[in-house]
């Protein structure tokens, strides 16, 4: 078996960003033909958005509705796997996909893991990396004696391709499915006023270097003055100084769209830096010249974050 099958996901007529990220994941894995399947009543409407570099073929599958149905997605995915014989199937780690991913893997006797943020292949087969034990360790999951592996991929873990591609376009007949549920309506959740780390293009994050909780507010105000989204390291979130939604890292959010990241008083744990892996321009400020954060920073300042913050306030 060979090739990578990606199942795209859309909602309310829009392709979800993680679908393009799955293509990026398949492209990074390298060396395999990449097929992207899109389901719906009007699947052709999503084809142009899926014409990205790294895609060899887009398969449209016409179903009864554009609304998500787990039974339909499971049946179509199973039929596609049987027809195309891929070695790897990539699905988004979302509430929708979790409704059918595990049953799909069990029924087909496929290898399976969820919430992966790393993919690799050796002579024995695919290896997926995910967190474990309360996000305290990273685990490499292998799938011995499994010809096909199904993996759900963490949103934001991979960068979507920037360039367009020229894939082949084909159609696939959906198997007959009798859904056990009916889509009634979709309601956006009420705005929480929280942050969007994954979609932010400019982030200023704070770490233990701020010293105490009372100092959070001045950095929140500074981030606002700079036009940045306020992020933080895990110790800040674990201490309750900022909500979990602000946390950048493997156990938080990945700065997938960030163009500029300012790390204030962050030493740079492996877990935190994994959440910054897509960022090209990183500015690190720390009093410790040996801080790990400097190893990935484009610009580094060895100094007191409060002094640097005061300088920035004088210019913005």
Automatic annotation (TrEMBL):
InterPro entries, per database record: DHS-like_NAD/FAD-binding_dom (IPR029035), ETF_a/b_N (IPR014730), ETF_a/FixB (IPR001308), ETF_alpha_N (IPR033947), ETF_asu_C (IPR014731), ETF_asu_C_CS (IPR018206), Rossmann-like_a/b/a_fold (IPR014729)
GO MF terms held by the record: electron transfer activity; flavin adenine dinucleotide binding
Organism of provenance: Paraburkholderia azotifigens
Keywords: Electron transport, FAD, Flavoprotein, Transport
The protein's name in its UniProt record: Electron transfer flavoprotein subunit alpha/FixB family protein
Family annotation (PROSITE patterns): ETF_ALPHA (PS00696)
Cofactor: binding comment: Binds 1 FAD per dimer.
Binding site for FAD: 208, 233-234, 247-251, 265-272, 286, 304-305
GO BP of this protein: fatty acid beta-oxidation using acyl-CoA dehydrogenase
Domain of life, per lineage: Bacteria
Names of required cofactors: FAD
Family membership: Belongs to the ETF alpha-subunit/FixB family.
Electron transfer flavoprotein alpha/beta-subunit N-terminal domain ranges (all copies): 4-189
